[in-house]
Amino acid sequence: MGIRQSALQRLRKNSISAKEIASQAWCEKQMELYITSPMPATPAMEKGAAFHETKKVAVYVPLAVEPVTWPDRFYRTAYENYTSLASLKEKGVCRELKLYGSIHGFRISGVLDELQMAEGNVRIVEDKTVMNANGFSSARVRSDTIQVSVYKKLLEDIKKKDYTFDNFASTYQPENMSMSQEFMDGLESIGVRKELQTMRGIYKKMFEEILAMPEVSDSLEIRYFDRSTKELVSNMNVTYSRETLEEWLRHSMKYWSGEREALMVPENEKWKCNNCRFFGKECTPQWYKK
Ligand code: SF4
Cβ contacts of residue 42 below 8 Å, gap of 6+? Predict the structure, then answer.
């Protein structure tokens, strides 16, 4: 493999998430350090995860068969995406849709929070939790806007057939994944249609459902909730700009391709380091040494 995959190789990763691309806009060095030095979930992270779980159960129908192996879980992702997209059609809303795509030749994935039907179009909604009503800055909104814009691009690429089921299949090779017999028996017992019982069948169906869904709106919504009270503190509408996103992706992918090292925040954004657990330890920015 050439230099192109050096950051992925170095970090022992084979795909990049929408969240990581967004985190690069906050601090690329911090994003990298979170991968190389993960830590157990903090109470704040657990509160955020619990909040998303509460929202999810309202419209989510889990697959009633427990996966045993990694391929079983990979199947479950597509099956639950398929039922989520059915919920979008029936109830006008679905939660937690996992997306796959490709940006500059890299594998990209992401789980968007919510799709809603709005005026005949599909609207992407992302939920974020903040410490308090004043707990987010324009830098935070910029990073979150990039995340939700990546979801829009991934969906748009599928709908425009820039990223097809065949692209997905040649990358992930679903037909070469063997699910456990126990799991497959479970699918049969709950009455999953025969043509959807294979890995290839369920992923093909998932792509067909995305292709069949109405256009995805350029109007993207980011909802900020207070982490403790769960109350909505701000509801932002941002307009998708493919050009702005592409410009950001050209910059951010240079990190993943190994063209440059992870960037630290510049001195005029040093306030971001105040709450960074790596400050003065794994990371000492150049301006700090002056
Ligand atoms: S200390 Fe500052 S520059 Fe370094 S990783 Fe943290 S936020 Fe980024």
Answer: none
State if residue 123 touches ligand 1 by the CB under 6 angstroms criterion. Answer: no
**Residue ID of nearest Cα to ligand 1 atom 2:** 273
The pTM of this model reads 0.92
Ligand 1, atom nearest to 29 Cα? 5
> What phi and psi, each to the nearest 5 degrees, are found at residue 100?
-125, 150
pLDDT band at 135 (very low <50, low <70, confident <90, very high): low
Strands (E), 131-218: none
Pocket residue to mutate for ligand 1, from 28, 30, 282, most atoms within 8 A of Cβ: 30
| CA 36 / ligand 1 centre spacing (Å) | 14
Which helix (H) or strand (E) segment holds residue 221: the answer is strand 219-226
Share of the chain above pLDDT 90, in %: 79
- pLDDT tier at 149 (50, 70, 90 boundaries)? very high
Contact 198, 75 (CB under 8 A): no
Rg (CA), the chain: 20
Angle at 33 between CA 28 and CA 36, to 5 degrees: 135
The SS3 assignment for 23 reads: helix
Query: What is the C-alpha to C-alpha distance for residues 190 and 56, in angstroms, rounded to an integer?
Result: 22
